[in-house]
Specification:
Layout: H1 18-38, H2 43-50, H3 54-82, H4 84-104, H5 108-122, H6 127-136, H7 139-150, H8 152-194, H9 208-219, H10 222-253, H11 257-284, H12 291-309, H13 317-331, H14 335-380, H15 382-395, H16 397-416
Amino acid sequence: MKARTRNPRPHNPLPESPYEVLALFTGAMAGASLWIMSTGALMPFFTAELHVGQTQLGLILSIQLVGSVAMTSVAGLLTDRFGDKAVVLWSGAVMGLALIAASLAENYRWLICWLLIYGIGYAAVTPAGSHAIIFFFRKADRGFAMGVRQCGVPIAGALGSVVLPAIALHFRYTGALAAAGLFTVATCSIASLLYREPRELAGERVSVRAMLADMLTIAREAPLIFLTLNAMVLICAQFALMGFFTLTLVHSAGYSLALAVALFTLAQFAAIFGRLSWGWMSDRFFGASRALPLALVCVLVALVAFGVASISPATPLWLAAAIAAALGFAAEGWLGLSIIGFAEIGGEERCGSALGVGLTWTLFAGFVTPVIFGALVQALGFPAAWRALAAFELVGVVPALLASAMVSRAIAAHSSS
């Protein structure tokens, strides 16, 4: 099927600054991510008030990701269909109202149901706004711009892990849920209302059948397939960091829980720096290639994972801190590169569809990682599990290089035509 095409347009034809647009969508991403990034910090409150076990606690977090995995492709289609402005507004309303409803129903089963709905709304967070980044920023600046936007996620985690537990201490976990819901509605509404969406990005009123056909077409494009495979490999390291790095420091190095959490926090601050740096480096040193720096990220993550595997009680604290910072910088800092790579493959008219395809498989890999990594830890121990992860990360170099070669050939062919 031949893809729909549009006439070329100049970037930023509107009087507003592209950085105003970036600020709006970064704020929306931070607001939408506040709850999901802070859920772990509220686990003690759920335990005390809902009287649930460890398995049920784990479901509180994983159910949100299930909703996102299930609906990311649909969210991408809806963004192509209705535009960023509408999807940011309505997804923010879905997420915020779901959290507020969960705060009113003081019941574990209802909490799970409402968090599933929150996760469904969260699926639209990345696709909605990516059209604007593609449209308002030159290709040479998009990597850094997307890195800035993706910083909204770790910023939300740092803010929420401090503010929401403080609210829960005074108003129980239901107060934290309500506060997060109100913040989500507010930030997404502000972004939608203040964003002056270009007419060309307001979406195309086409049939669902045509939209699905477009998605199937782009899902078969080789560069997207290889870039998705690379992202699936890299997100395994990100979820291993999120779920097992603190435990590794406690069990392998004998650190106190407080010290292990402090090093994990250091990794999160390094992740913010990484999300800014990788995008900037792809723009300035890799000729706006997204795949080549992703290949380098795989190598760095593998080296750092080997470093994590070597941590023991004899490891100096400064070295453990350096490993933690390097792990956050590499294993969490890369995501903006993949997202802008997906979006550029789709182009302005199919950006949401490309993101939907790539992120669905990427999130699925993240969803299964804790189970597999945990099984390796149980069978072989923490050092062996991290060494296995390091070897696996090197596999991600291959699809990244293949994607880079294909995109380069496509650009050369377009330039010569």
